[in-house]
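Notes from hallway chat w/ T.B., transcribed later so I don't forget. T.B. wanted the structure written out for a chain they're using in a teaching module, and asked if we could keep both sequence and structure tokens in one place. Agreed to drop them here.
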Amino acid sequence: MLNIAFGQSKYYVDNLSENVKRGLRQKVRRGEQVGRAPMGYLNDLVAKKMIPDPLRFHLIHKMFELYVTGNYSLKSLREIIFEKGLMSGTDKKLSISMIQKILTNPMYYGAFLFNGELFAGTHEPCVSKKLFDGVQSILTSKTNPKKRGEKQYPLRGLFVCGECGCSITSETHKGHDYYRCTKKRDAKCSQKYIREELLAQQLSTIIQNVSLPKDWTDNILEQLQTEKSDTAQSDALFAQTIKDEVKVYENKLDTLLDAHLEQLITREEYTTKKNKVLSQKMDLEQKLKDFERKGNAWLERTRAFINACIQAENVALDENIFAKKDFLKKHGSNHLLTDKTAWVDFLAPWDFVFEFREKMGLGSVGIQNLHAPKGGERGGIYTHLRDMDSNHDTILQRDVSYH
């Protein structure tokens, strides 16, 4: 009798365990996170779902935005985010490991892991997939962390020597920061030191020469505001194409699941392939969401570029050298330092802005006469930006060197 009682008890426990596991699996398939919500979210016990934390949600987003710039270490990011009000449950600074855990948690872009598998969540994402992937790239690239107390030079890593192709390093002498060629490839390289202040001044001039006067930008933004869209049919076709691609990935997920259930592939193979396919599917879904949110894409991109031209003037006049470096890394290439002179190849469409300034007689700031163009001239840059967007691949092949 005792053996029978023990057998019934074990059957009850095993059955209960299987029911709990089955319930958890059903929950994650619905896109619901199992367990306690991560920092930035709260567990809604009434609705039984995860909701954004009104006090921390935007701070988590800010953390991602700051780190993706590449200007902050995990330690410096902890200090900045603490000053903004993000702290642990005991009102202390977050640990480095906690920050790293947040930055690598797929929960924040709308997915979550369960038993090593990636699932699409139904909760509100804190960041976009693109921003999350950018942060992962920064985390991966920082294989050589800064030593404690090591001085940071804002322009280190931006330039290479125009004579021998070596990296440009930085040193401090008598209270001033200097940049020079490492001369590792050619000890006879003739390039000399240049002070950081003089180099930063050159960068300000370079950036200012791809900015646009305020009356130009006001005119272009006004035209954008009144532009009537005639691309509704092509937009609908583009959206449908993405939806069809999403359906293809959904079919792949179903095929993988069937193969796993029929024991044609191992669980490890299923998990690896499923995570990859699901990530690609979510990339497409994010692309579709962005497209549907923006509507007429070229109008939004052109408006964003014009606003960037306005921001270029602010970056040029600001004393923040890190911001100048970020601008040139994002919008330029082939950064060279030759004879104490900085050279940058501007990528499209910034190359056109520089050419347009030259054509309109603006030239280099502080050297040639600055004059307000006529309305027709201002319309020229607007038309070019609109046409450029429809032939983006060709335009991207152009670059213009400026020093």
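Follow-up for T.B.: The two ends are 94 Å apart (CA to CA). Might be a good example for the class.
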